[in-house]
Protein backbone atom coordinates (compact mmCIF):
# COMPACT_ATOMS: atom_id res chain seq x y z
CA UNK A 1 0.00 0.00 0.00
CA UNK A 2 1.37 3.41 -0.85
CA UNK A 3 0.60 6.77 0.71
CA UNK A 4 -3.04 7.48 1.07
CA UNK A 5 -4.36 10.95 1.29
CA UNK A 6 -7.35 12.43 -0.41
CA UNK A 7 -10.42 10.44 0.57
CA UNK A 8 -8.78 7.07 -0.04
CA UNK A 9 -8.76 6.61 3.69
CA UNK A 10 -10.86 9.53 4.70
CA UNK A 11 -10.89 10.12 8.46
CA UNK A 12 -7.84 7.88 8.69
CA UNK A 13 -7.08 9.48 11.97
CA UNK A 14 -10.33 8.34 13.55
CA UNK A 15 -10.08 4.65 13.13
CA UNK A 16 -13.18 2.70 13.75
CA UNK A 17 -11.13 -0.41 13.30
CA UNK A 18 -12.90 -3.08 11.35
CA UNK A 19 -12.71 -6.80 11.54
CA UNK A 20 -9.51 -7.49 9.70
CA UNK A 21 -6.50 -9.51 10.71
CA UNK A 22 -5.60 -10.29 14.29
CA UNK A 23 -7.17 -8.73 17.40
CA UNK A 24 -10.72 -8.46 18.65
CA UNK A 25 -12.96 -7.14 15.86
CA UNK A 26 -15.03 -5.27 18.45
CA UNK A 27 -12.04 -3.21 19.54
CA UNK A 28 -12.11 0.40 18.47
CA UNK A 29 -9.09 2.66 18.40
CA UNK A 30 -8.52 6.30 17.73
CA UNK A 31 -5.04 7.54 16.86
CA UNK A 32 -4.74 11.19 15.93
CA UNK A 33 -2.12 13.86 16.64
CA UNK A 34 -4.49 14.91 19.46
CA UNK A 35 -5.79 11.66 20.95
CA UNK A 36 -4.76 8.02 21.37
CA UNK A 37 -7.43 5.69 22.71
CA UNK A 38 -8.38 2.05 22.37
CA UNK A 39 -10.99 -0.17 23.98
CA UNK A 40 -8.56 -3.12 24.06
CA UNK A 41 -6.71 -3.84 27.32
CA UNK A 42 -3.79 -5.08 25.21
CA UNK A 43 -3.35 -1.52 23.92
CA UNK A 44 -3.18 -0.07 20.42
CA UNK A 45 -3.17 -2.71 17.69
CA UNK A 46 -0.16 -1.47 15.77
CA UNK A 47 -0.54 -3.96 12.93
CA UNK A 48 -3.97 -2.60 12.21
CA UNK A 49 -2.54 0.91 12.29
CA UNK A 50 0.05 -0.03 9.70
CA UNK A 51 -2.68 -1.31 7.40
CA UNK A 52 -4.90 1.70 8.00
CA UNK A 53 -2.16 4.30 7.64
CA UNK A 54 -0.55 2.51 4.70
CA UNK A 55 2.96 2.50 6.17
CA UNK A 56 5.37 -0.44 6.18
CA UNK A 57 6.28 -2.71 9.09
CA UNK A 58 9.89 -2.65 10.23
CA UNK A 59 11.02 -6.12 9.18
CA UNK A 60 14.11 -8.14 10.06
CA UNK A 61 15.57 -7.81 6.57
CA UNK A 62 15.43 -4.02 6.84
CA UNK A 63 17.11 -4.12 10.25
CA UNK A 64 19.86 -6.33 8.79
CA UNK A 65 20.33 -3.76 6.06
CA UNK A 66 20.45 -0.99 8.67
CA UNK A 67 23.32 -2.70 10.49
CA UNK A 68 25.12 -3.61 7.29
CA UNK A 69 24.94 -0.07 5.93
CA UNK A 70 25.92 1.67 9.17
CA UNK A 71 28.40 -1.00 10.27
CA UNK A 72 27.26 -0.41 13.86
CA UNK A 73 24.81 -2.05 16.26
CA UNK A 74 21.38 -0.53 15.99
CA UNK A 75 19.68 1.33 18.87
CA UNK A 76 17.62 -0.90 21.18
CA UNK A 77 14.44 1.02 20.33
CA UNK A 78 14.82 -0.16 16.74
CA UNK A 79 16.12 -3.64 17.60
CA UNK A 80 12.98 -4.23 19.73
CA UNK A 81 10.78 -2.72 17.03
CA UNK A 82 9.50 -0.11 19.43
CA UNK A 83 10.03 1.93 16.27
CA UNK A 84 7.79 -0.51 14.44
CA UNK A 85 6.72 1.16 11.24
CA UNK A 86 8.36 3.22 8.52
CA UNK A 87 8.05 4.93 5.20
CA UNK A 88 11.00 4.62 2.81
CA UNK A 89 13.63 3.86 5.46
CA UNK A 90 15.29 1.61 2.88
CA UNK A 91 15.66 4.58 0.53
CA UNK A 92 17.37 6.66 3.21
CA UNK A 93 19.72 3.75 3.87
CA UNK A 94 20.53 3.69 0.16
CA UNK A 95 21.25 7.42 0.25
CA UNK A 96 23.61 6.89 3.19
CA UNK A 97 25.26 3.86 1.58
CA UNK A 98 26.02 5.88 -1.54
CA UNK A 99 27.76 8.54 0.55
CA UNK A 100 25.11 11.20 -0.14
CA UNK A 101 23.82 13.48 2.64
CA UNK A 102 20.53 13.39 4.50
CA UNK A 103 19.28 15.05 7.67
CA UNK A 104 17.00 14.31 10.61
CA UNK A 105 13.83 16.22 11.51
CA UNK A 106 11.68 15.85 14.61
CA UNK A 107 9.64 18.11 16.90
CA UNK A 108 7.62 18.92 19.96
CA UNK A 109 4.40 20.82 20.58
CA UNK A 110 5.14 22.90 23.70
CA UNK A 111 1.84 22.67 25.57
CA UNK A 112 3.26 22.43 29.08
CA UNK A 113 6.56 23.06 30.81
CA UNK A 114 6.75 19.47 32.09
CA UNK A 115 7.50 16.98 29.34
CA UNK A 116 6.84 13.32 30.16
CA UNK A 117 8.78 10.14 29.47
CA UNK A 118 6.78 9.48 26.29
CA UNK A 119 7.91 12.77 24.77
CA UNK A 120 11.49 11.80 25.47
CA UNK A 121 11.39 8.64 23.34
CA UNK A 122 11.66 10.20 19.85
CA UNK A 123 14.39 12.51 21.13
CA UNK A 124 16.46 9.73 22.73
CA UNK A 125 16.17 7.76 19.50
CA UNK A 126 16.94 10.76 17.31
CA UNK A 127 20.10 11.44 19.30
CA UNK A 128 21.20 7.84 18.79
CA UNK A 129 20.58 8.25 15.04
CA UNK A 130 22.46 11.54 14.97
CA UNK A 131 25.46 9.89 16.65
CA UNK A 132 25.27 6.89 14.34
CA UNK A 133 24.96 8.76 11.03
CA UNK A 134 26.78 11.95 12.08
CA UNK A 135 24.29 14.22 10.33
CA UNK A 136 22.44 17.50 10.89
CA UNK A 137 19.17 17.62 12.81
CA UNK A 138 16.38 20.19 12.86
CA UNK A 139 13.88 20.27 15.73
CA UNK A 140 10.62 22.17 15.33
CA UNK A 141 8.84 23.59 18.39
CA UNK A 142 5.26 24.21 17.29
CA UNK A 143 4.32 26.99 19.70
CA UNK A 144 1.96 28.25 16.97
CA UNK A 145 0.16 24.86 16.94
CA UNK A 146 -0.31 24.96 20.69
CA UNK A 147 -1.64 28.54 20.53
CA UNK A 148 -4.17 27.36 17.93
CA UNK A 149 -5.24 24.13 19.67
CA UNK A 150 -4.94 24.95 23.38
CA UNK A 151 -6.05 27.70 25.68
CA UNK A 152 -2.61 29.36 25.63
CA UNK A 153 -1.58 32.91 24.76
CA UNK A 154 1.05 33.40 22.07
CA UNK A 155 3.44 34.65 24.74
CA UNK A 156 2.92 31.60 26.95
CA UNK A 157 3.25 29.12 24.07
CA UNK A 158 6.48 30.80 23.00
CA UNK A 159 7.82 30.76 26.56
CA UNK A 160 7.03 27.03 26.81
CA UNK A 161 8.94 26.42 23.57
CA UNK A 162 12.08 27.80 25.21
CA UNK A 163 11.46 25.78 28.40
CA UNK A 164 10.99 22.58 26.40
CA UNK A 165 14.12 23.38 24.37
CA UNK A 166 16.10 22.98 27.61
CA UNK A 167 14.74 19.45 28.08
CA UNK A 168 15.50 18.59 24.47
CA UNK A 169 19.05 19.96 24.67
CA UNK A 170 19.52 17.95 27.89
CA UNK A 171 19.09 14.77 25.83
CA UNK A 172 22.60 15.52 24.60
CA UNK A 173 22.36 16.72 20.99
CA UNK A 174 25.49 17.92 19.25
CA UNK A 175 25.29 21.72 19.07
CA UNK A 176 27.46 21.78 15.95
CA UNK A 177 24.87 19.71 14.12
CA UNK A 178 21.52 20.69 15.67
CA UNK A 179 19.17 23.59 14.98
CA UNK A 180 16.12 24.02 17.24
CA UNK A 181 13.46 26.57 16.34
CA UNK A 182 10.22 28.05 17.64
CA UNK A 183 7.80 28.47 14.72
CA UNK A 184 6.75 31.87 16.03
CA UNK A 185 10.31 33.18 15.99
CA UNK A 186 11.64 31.34 12.95
CA UNK A 187 8.81 32.76 10.84
CA UNK A 188 10.26 36.21 11.39
CA UNK A 189 13.87 35.12 10.90
CA UNK A 190 13.80 33.12 7.71
CA UNK A 191 11.83 34.02 4.54
CA UNK A 192 12.19 30.52 3.06
CA UNK A 193 10.10 29.06 5.90
CA UNK A 194 6.97 31.05 5.02
CA UNK A 195 7.54 30.66 1.29
CA UNK A 196 7.60 26.88 1.55
CA UNK A 197 4.53 26.99 3.81
CA UNK A 198 2.66 28.91 1.12
CA UNK A 199 3.77 26.43 -1.54
CA UNK A 200 2.34 23.56 0.52
CA UNK A 201 -0.85 25.44 1.40
CA UNK A 202 -1.53 26.09 -2.28
CA UNK A 203 -0.95 22.42 -3.16
CA UNK A 204 -3.33 20.89 -0.58
CA UNK A 205 -7.09 21.25 -0.95
CA UNK A 206 -9.45 21.74 1.96
CA UNK A 207 -11.05 18.38 1.27
CA UNK A 208 -7.66 16.63 1.46
CA UNK A 209 -6.93 18.27 4.81
CA UNK A 210 -10.44 17.42 6.04
CA UNK A 211 -10.03 13.83 4.87
CA UNK A 212 -6.79 13.39 6.78
CA UNK A 213 -7.49 15.45 9.91
CA UNK A 214 -11.28 15.28 10.17
CA UNK A 215 -11.76 19.06 10.46
CA UNK A 216 -15.32 20.11 11.31
CA UNK A 217 -17.17 23.30 10.29
CA UNK A 218 -16.62 24.87 13.71
CA UNK A 219 -12.84 24.49 13.51
CA UNK A 220 -11.19 27.85 12.98
CA UNK A 221 -9.16 28.37 9.84
CA UNK A 222 -5.88 28.51 11.78
CA UNK A 223 -6.13 24.75 12.27
CA UNK A 224 -6.78 24.10 8.60
CA UNK A 225 -3.66 25.95 7.50
CA UNK A 226 -1.36 24.59 10.21
CA UNK A 227 -0.38 21.21 8.68
CA UNK A 228 1.71 23.05 6.07
CA UNK A 229 3.83 24.48 8.90
CA UNK A 230 4.68 21.04 10.27
CA UNK A 231 5.29 19.80 6.72
CA UNK A 232 7.97 22.18 5.50
CA UNK A 233 10.91 21.35 7.80
CA UNK A 234 10.87 18.10 5.77
CA UNK A 235 12.27 20.13 2.86
CA UNK A 236 15.91 21.15 2.96
CA UNK A 237 15.20 24.41 1.08
CA UNK A 238 13.45 25.65 4.26
CA UNK A 239 16.92 25.95 5.83
CA UNK A 240 19.16 27.76 3.29
CA UNK A 241 21.62 28.72 6.04
CA UNK A 242 22.27 24.98 6.53
CA UNK A 243 21.81 23.49 3.07
CA UNK A 244 22.49 26.48 0.79
CA UNK A 245 20.67 26.35 -2.56
CA UNK A 246 20.18 22.59 -2.52
CA UNK A 247 16.74 21.05 -2.96
CA UNK A 248 17.83 17.43 -3.18
CA UNK A 249 18.74 16.50 0.40
CA UNK A 250 16.14 14.14 1.89
CA UNK A 251 15.27 13.83 5.55
CA UNK A 252 14.31 11.08 7.97
CA UNK A 253 11.65 11.87 10.59
CA UNK A 254 11.61 9.81 13.80
CA UNK A 255 8.29 10.39 15.60
CA UNK A 256 5.36 8.75 17.34
CA UNK A 257 2.87 7.22 14.86
CA UNK A 258 0.30 9.85 15.93
CA UNK A 259 2.22 12.43 13.89
CA UNK A 260 1.97 10.44 10.65
CA UNK A 261 -1.10 12.31 9.26
CA UNK A 262 1.04 15.43 8.86
CA UNK A 263 3.59 13.55 6.87
CA UNK A 264 1.14 11.71 4.63
CA UNK A 265 0.16 15.15 3.36
CA UNK A 266 3.81 16.17 3.14
CA UNK A 267 4.78 13.10 1.13
CA UNK A 268 1.82 13.64 -1.17
CA UNK A 269 2.77 17.22 -2.08
CA UNK A 270 6.57 16.90 -2.10
CA UNK A 271 7.00 15.64 -5.69
CA UNK A 272 4.52 18.23 -7.00
CA UNK A 273 6.75 20.94 -5.53
CA UNK A 274 10.01 19.38 -6.71
CA UNK A 275 11.05 18.39 -3.19
CA UNK A 276 12.17 15.02 -1.78
CA UNK A 277 9.58 12.97 0.09
CA UNK A 278 10.59 12.60 3.73
CA UNK A 279 11.23 9.11 5.10
CA UNK A 280 9.73 8.21 8.47
CA UNK A 281 10.30 5.91 11.41
CA UNK A 282 7.25 5.61 13.68
CA UNK A 283 7.32 4.57 17.31
CA UNK A 284 4.73 2.87 19.47
CA UNK A 285 3.55 4.81 22.51
CA UNK A 286 4.65 4.56 26.09
CA UNK A 287 1.29 3.65 27.59
CA UNK A 288 -0.41 5.47 30.41
CA UNK A 289 0.52 4.19 33.89
CA UNK A 290 -3.01 2.88 34.35
CA UNK A 291 -2.92 0.64 31.32
CA UNK A 292 -2.40 0.41 27.61
CA UNK A 293 -5.80 1.80 26.52
CA UNK A 294 -4.30 5.30 26.30
CA UNK A 295 -0.82 6.70 25.84
CA UNK A 296 1.08 8.59 28.48
CA UNK A 297 -0.44 12.05 28.17
CA UNK A 298 0.59 15.43 29.52
CA UNK A 299 -3.03 16.31 30.31
CA UNK A 300 -3.44 13.52 32.91
CA UNK A 301 -0.90 13.77 35.79
CA UNK A 302 -1.79 10.29 37.08
CA UNK A 303 -1.02 8.75 33.68
CA UNK A 304 2.48 10.13 33.40
CA UNK A 305 5.98 10.28 34.82
CA UNK A 306 7.19 13.82 34.20
CA UNK A 307 10.78 14.88 33.72
CA UNK A 308 10.20 17.24 36.66
CA UNK A 309 9.06 14.50 39.07
CA UNK A 310 10.98 13.90 42.30
CA UNK A 311 12.24 10.44 43.27
CA UNK A 312 9.40 10.19 45.79
CA UNK A 313 6.78 11.08 43.17
CA UNK A 314 8.16 8.48 40.75
CA UNK A 315 8.08 5.83 43.46
CA UNK A 316 4.55 6.71 44.59
CA UNK A 317 3.09 6.89 41.09
CA UNK A 318 4.52 3.55 40.03
CA UNK A 319 3.56 1.80 43.24
CA UNK A 320 0.07 3.32 43.24
CA UNK A 321 -0.94 3.50 39.57
CA UNK A 322 1.21 1.23 37.38
CA UNK A 323 -1.17 -1.43 36.10
CA UNK A 324 0.06 -4.87 37.09
CA UNK A 325 -0.02 -8.10 35.13
CA UNK A 326 0.63 -10.00 38.37
CA UNK A 327 -1.79 -12.38 40.09
CA UNK A 328 -4.07 -11.57 43.04
CA UNK A 329 -2.05 -13.37 45.72
CA UNK A 330 1.63 -14.23 46.14
CA UNK A 331 0.80 -17.96 46.05
CA UNK A 332 -1.15 -17.59 42.83
CA UNK A 333 1.61 -15.45 41.32
CA UNK A 334 4.30 -17.99 42.22
CA UNK A 335 2.18 -20.72 40.62
CA UNK A 336 0.97 -18.92 37.45
CA UNK A 337 3.46 -16.08 36.93
CA UNK A 338 2.75 -12.54 35.72
CA UNK A 339 1.55 -11.39 32.30
CA UNK A 340 4.24 -9.18 30.76
CA UNK A 341 2.00 -8.27 27.82
CA UNK A 342 -0.28 -6.13 29.98
CA UNK A 343 2.08 -5.28 32.84
CA UNK A 344 2.87 -1.59 32.55
CA UNK A 345 6.11 -1.76 34.57
CA UNK A 346 7.45 -4.44 32.22
CA UNK A 347 6.30 -2.45 29.19
CA UNK A 348 8.23 0.59 30.46
CA UNK A 349 11.34 -1.52 31.06
CA UNK A 350 11.26 -2.48 27.36
CA UNK A 351 11.72 1.21 26.55
CA UNK A 352 14.42 1.96 29.09
CA UNK A 353 16.55 -1.16 29.72
CA UNK A 354 19.02 -1.26 26.84
CA UNK A 355 20.63 -4.57 27.85
CA UNK A 356 18.73 -7.40 26.09
CA UNK A 357 20.02 -10.10 28.46
CA UNK A 358 18.89 -8.15 31.53
CA UNK A 359 15.44 -7.51 30.07
CA UNK A 360 15.03 -11.17 29.09
CA UNK A 361 16.00 -12.25 32.63
CA UNK A 362 13.33 -9.96 34.07
CA UNK A 363 10.75 -11.26 31.58
CA UNK A 364 11.51 -14.88 32.44
CA UNK A 365 11.57 -14.29 36.19
CA UNK A 366 8.32 -12.36 36.17
CA UNK A 367 6.38 -14.59 33.82
CA UNK A 368 7.40 -17.73 35.73
CA UNK A 369 6.44 -16.21 39.08
CA UNK A 370 9.99 -16.06 40.43
CA UNK A 371 9.78 -12.26 40.48
CA UNK A 372 6.85 -10.57 42.25
CA UNK A 373 5.07 -7.40 41.12
CA UNK A 374 6.64 -5.39 43.97
CA UNK A 375 10.11 -6.50 42.86
CA UNK A 376 9.39 -5.65 39.23
CA UNK A 377 8.12 -2.22 40.23
CA UNK A 378 11.19 -1.65 42.39
CA UNK A 379 13.40 -2.40 39.37
CA UNK A 380 11.51 0.15 37.29
CA UNK A 381 11.47 2.76 40.06
CA UNK A 382 15.26 2.61 40.41
CA UNK A 383 15.82 2.87 36.65
CA UNK A 384 13.44 5.79 36.20
CA UNK A 385 14.69 7.65 39.27
CA UNK A 386 18.22 7.47 37.86
CA UNK A 387 17.09 8.49 34.37
CA UNK A 388 15.02 11.45 35.57
CA UNK A 389 17.63 12.63 38.11
CA UNK A 390 20.35 12.52 35.44
CA UNK A 391 18.07 14.38 33.04
CA UNK A 392 17.38 17.07 35.65
CA UNK A 393 21.10 17.44 36.31
CA UNK A 394 21.86 17.91 32.60
CA UNK A 395 18.89 20.28 32.16
CA UNK A 396 20.08 22.47 35.04
CA UNK A 397 23.35 22.93 33.15
CA UNK A 398 21.54 24.25 30.04
CA UNK A 399 21.93 28.02 30.35
CA UNK A 400 19.89 30.61 28.40
CA UNK A 401 23.08 31.23 26.41
CA UNK A 402 23.22 27.57 25.33
CA UNK A 403 19.53 27.65 24.36
CA UNK A 404 20.19 30.79 22.32
CA UNK A 405 23.05 29.11 20.49
CA UNK A 406 21.00 26.05 19.57
CA UNK A 407 18.13 28.30 18.43
CA UNK A 408 20.12 30.70 16.28
CA UNK A 409 19.82 30.05 12.52
CA UNK A 410 23.38 29.24 11.51
CA UNK A 411 25.59 26.99 9.44
CA UNK A 412 25.79 23.49 10.85
CA UNK A 413 28.73 21.16 10.65
CA UNK A 414 27.54 19.36 7.54
CA UNK A 415 29.31 17.27 4.92
CA UNK A 416 27.45 18.10 1.69
P1 LIG B 1 4.07 16.28 20.86
O1 LIG B 1 4.65 17.38 21.66
O2 LIG B 1 2.66 15.88 21.12
O3 LIG B 1 4.97 15.00 21.01
C1 LIG B 1 6.38 15.06 20.77
C2 LIG B 1 6.83 13.70 20.27
O4 LIG B 1 6.59 12.71 21.28
C3 LIG B 1 5.81 11.65 20.75
N1 LIG B 1 4.98 11.13 21.84
C4 LIG B 1 5.14 9.91 22.36
N2 LIG B 1 5.99 8.90 22.05
C5 LIG B 1 5.93 7.75 22.77
N3 LIG B 1 5.04 7.57 23.79
C6 LIG B 1 4.16 8.56 24.15
N4 LIG B 1 3.31 8.37 25.14
C7 LIG B 1 4.19 9.80 23.42
N5 LIG B 1 3.50 10.97 23.49
C8 LIG B 1 4.01 11.76 22.53
C9 LIG B 1 5.02 12.28 19.60
O5 LIG B 1 4.58 11.32 18.68
C10 LIG B 1 6.06 13.22 19.02
O6 LIG B 1 6.94 12.52 18.15
N6 LIG B 1 2.90 18.44 16.43
C11 LIG B 1 3.97 17.79 17.19
C12 LIG B 1 5.29 18.56 17.17
C13 LIG B 1 6.08 18.34 15.90
C14 LIG B 1 6.68 17.12 15.48
C15 LIG B 1 7.33 17.41 14.24
C16 LIG B 1 6.74 15.84 16.05
C17 LIG B 1 6.38 19.28 14.96
N7 LIG B 1 7.14 18.73 13.95
C18 LIG B 1 8.02 16.41 13.56
C19 LIG B 1 7.43 14.86 15.36
C20 LIG B 1 8.07 15.13 14.12
C21 LIG B 1 3.53 17.59 18.64
O7 LIG B 1 2.66 18.27 19.14
O8 LIG B 1 4.27 16.61 19.31
Question: In a nutshell, what does this entry contain?
Answer:
This protein has 416 residues and is α/β, with parallel strands linked by helices. The protein has helices spanning 46-53, 60-70, 76-79, 89-97, 117-133, 143-149, 154-170, 183-189, 191-203, 206-213, 221-225, 227-231, 240-243, 260-273, 311-321, 330-336, 344-352, 356-367, 373-396, 400-406; strands at residues 29-31, 36-38, 56-57, 83-87, 103-108, 137-141, 178-182, 251-256, 279-283, 287-288, 291-295.
Structure, described:
The protein is an alpha/beta fold and 416 residues long. It has one domain: HUPs (Rossmann fold), CATH 3.40.50.620. Helix content is 48%, strand content 11%. It has helices at 46-53, 60-70, 76-79, 89-97, 117-133, 143-149, 154-170, 183-189, 191-203, 206-213, 221-225, 227-231, 240-243, 260-273, 311-321, 330-336, 344-352, 356-367, 373-396, 400-406, and strands at 29-31, 36-38, 56-57, 83-87, 103-108, 137-141, 178-182, 251-256, 279-283, 287-288, 291-295. A seven-stranded mixed sheet has the order 3-4-9-8-5-6-7, with helices on both faces. It has a two-stranded antiparallel sheet with strand order 1-2. Strand 10 (287-288) and strand 11 (291-295) form a beta hairpin. The two termini are 33 Å apart. The structure holds tryptophanyl-5'AMP (TYM). Tryptophanyl-5'AMP binds at residues 33, 106-109, 118-119, 121-122, 140, 142, 145, 230, 253, 255-256, 258-259, 283, 285-286, 295-296. Residues 33, 106-109, 118-119, 121-122, 140, 142, 145, 230, 253, 255-256, 258-259, 283, 285-286, 295-296 line the site of tryptophanyl-5'AMP.
Amino acid sequence: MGDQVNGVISQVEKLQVEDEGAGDPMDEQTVTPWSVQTSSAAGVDYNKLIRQFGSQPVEDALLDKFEKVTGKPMPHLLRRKIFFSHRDLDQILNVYASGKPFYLYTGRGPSSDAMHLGHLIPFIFTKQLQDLFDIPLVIQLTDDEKFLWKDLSLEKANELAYENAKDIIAVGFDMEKTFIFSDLDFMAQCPSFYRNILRVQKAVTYSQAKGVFGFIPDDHIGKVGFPAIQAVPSFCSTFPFIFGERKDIPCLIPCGIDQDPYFRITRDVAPKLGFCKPSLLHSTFIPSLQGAQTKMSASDPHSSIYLTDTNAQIKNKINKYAFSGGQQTVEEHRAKGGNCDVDISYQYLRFFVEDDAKLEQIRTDYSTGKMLTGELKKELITILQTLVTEHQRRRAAVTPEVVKQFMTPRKLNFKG
